[in-house]
Amino acid sequence: MTGHSTLPFRHWLFAVGAMVVSPLGFSCGHGPDPAASVAMQPEPLGDHECGACGMIVREEPSPRAQLVHHDGTHVWFCSVADEVAYASAPSPHGRVEHVWVETSPVDVDPASVDAAPRPWVAVERASFVLGVTRERVMGESVLAFEAETDARTAATRLGGRVSSWEQVVVALHGAP
Length: 176
What we know:
Strand content: 15-25%
Radius of gyration: 23 Å
Shape: globular
Structural class: alpha+beta
Number of strands: 7
């Protein structure tokens, strides 16, 4: 009977050890999740080249895009269409963790080639307008707005259509 008294203690010790180690991400021989340390905020444009076409991102008109991969690699794009094309292909940097786009002002002029930096918004929070022709934008033009009301106002004024991020990806790539 005395041998049975240590068995529950060993089980208790194992359970406590598992509760301490598991939240740290060290179970099953794996280290901490790299995504936990991935930047959660967009970064300034700087002098980065577009990850899809090689153009200098800051020289192109907004909205531009940027993303962060699972391994922490940050990539910038001169257009939303370039980001969608890039993200649709497998990457040695792992899955895409975060995507941001620059917002457009509600009174955006499609003929403007203004390359001034604009505020960034996560694609999950943005509303988009498709179907508007823009100067100096390769491929399908996409406008991004933080507020859906701004997107609707711009779409009505410019003859475009309001879209979600998922709809943008399907329109530009053909599949989510």
